[in-house]
Design goal:
Number of helices: 1
Distance between the termini: 53 Å
Mean pLDDT: 84
CATH superfamily of the largest domain: Immunoglobulins
CATH topology of the largest domain: Immunoglobulin-like
Strand content: 35-45%
Number of domains: 3
CATH architecture of the largest domain: Sandwich
Number of strands: 24
Helix content: under 10%
Length: about 300
């Protein structure tokens, strides 16, 4: 074994052992059973800084089923630790969602009742990191079955439809396809592809586009700590609909707002690349490209 691999093992097992010692998030599995032998799964759920996430909800699903079939497996303890006991052996998709629903992850696991060299039947998964969800926009036309829903096979991620039109589905980063179940019919709404964390995808095939704005007023040199106003030219969308704007200040990005005028102050001297972007306020997944940058020097 390589030295760096050994060092990771030395660090990893004490962390998991600490969680198990204090019984962080120990729960018995429920729902559909696969076989009779039982095993245990243990791990840690963390945020992007590496801190454990308390009260995250974990789900187990059958990755081979085409229909959403799942059950709640556990919740994490105060340090982000969890231990799922009494779990039937088999192949699962394990997903977790933060308490606020704004971050999540998805991974595949295989449990076994065969003990390891030390006689332990627990599967230690280590640390999984919660990431921003993917937003996928799909359209459903001529849908007569109002009990139908849009789903990702082998996961809990789905949304029921009550009319025909456009729907947004939020899910973890993954390789998958979005499907529609209507009666006994399953229809693929997207191709199988790699969806990235925090990204948005639009599969509605609309022709609407947002022109790229430009910075029409601002400064190129200034003083740290002072407020400066920047103005973008207003853009129009066909068919007409309201437009939002946001500014990239080179060290932060502003929130979306209907005003093309924004004020900003840099607290640290340096050189900053400023640019602006527009989007449809009606369909927020339709974005313009970023404008050309203007270099601002702050002294």
């Amino acid at each position: 074994m390589k030295k760096n691999s050994l060092s990771r093992l030395i660090i990893f097992f004490p962390v998991v052992a600490f969680c198990m010692l204090y019984h962080c998030g120990t729960y018995s599995a429920g729902g559909s059973e696969i076989g009779n032998p039982r095993t245990t799964v243990a791990g840690i759920v963390a945020d992007s800084t590496g801190a454990g996430v308390a009260s995250a909800t974990l789900y187990l699903t059958d990755p081979l089923t085409s229909l959403p079939d799942s059950f709640v497996a556990a919740h994490t303890g105060p340090d982000g630790c969890y231990e799922i006991t009494g779990l039937p052996t088999g192949n699962y998709n394990l997903s977790a969602i933060a308490p606020d629903g704004n971050t999540m992850f998805l991974r595949n696991i295989t449990t076994t009742d065969q003990p390891s060299e030390n006689g332990d039947t627990t599967l230690y998964l280590g640390t999984d990191t919660l990431l921003p969800p993917v937003t996928i926009l799909v359209s459903v036309e001529r849908c007569a079955d109002t009990s139908a829903f849009i789903f990702i096979p082998g996961t809990i991620f789905r949304t029921r439809i009550d009319s025909c039109g456009e729907y947004a589905l939020r899910c973890p980063a993954m390789i998958a396809s979005v499907n529609l179940l209507s009666g006994d019919s399953i229809q693929a709404l997207t191709p199988v592809r790699n969806f990235g964390a925090g990204e948005s995808y639009d599969f509605t095939a609309r022709a609407v586009s947002v022109p790229t704005p430009t910075l029409s007023s601002g400064i190129v040199t200034g003083t740290a700590g002072r407020d400066y106003t920047f103005i973008a030219n207003e853009v129009t969308i066909d068919p007409p609909q309201p437009v939002d704007y946001r500014f990239d200040w080179g060290e932060t990005v502003s929130l979306w707002n209907s005003s093309p005028e924004r004020t900003h102050a840099w607290n640290t001297a340096g050189t900053y690349a400023v640019r602006v972007q527009a989007r449809s306020a009606q369909d927020t997944l339709i974005l313009s490209t970023w404008s050309d940058t203007v270099t601002v020097t702050i002294r």
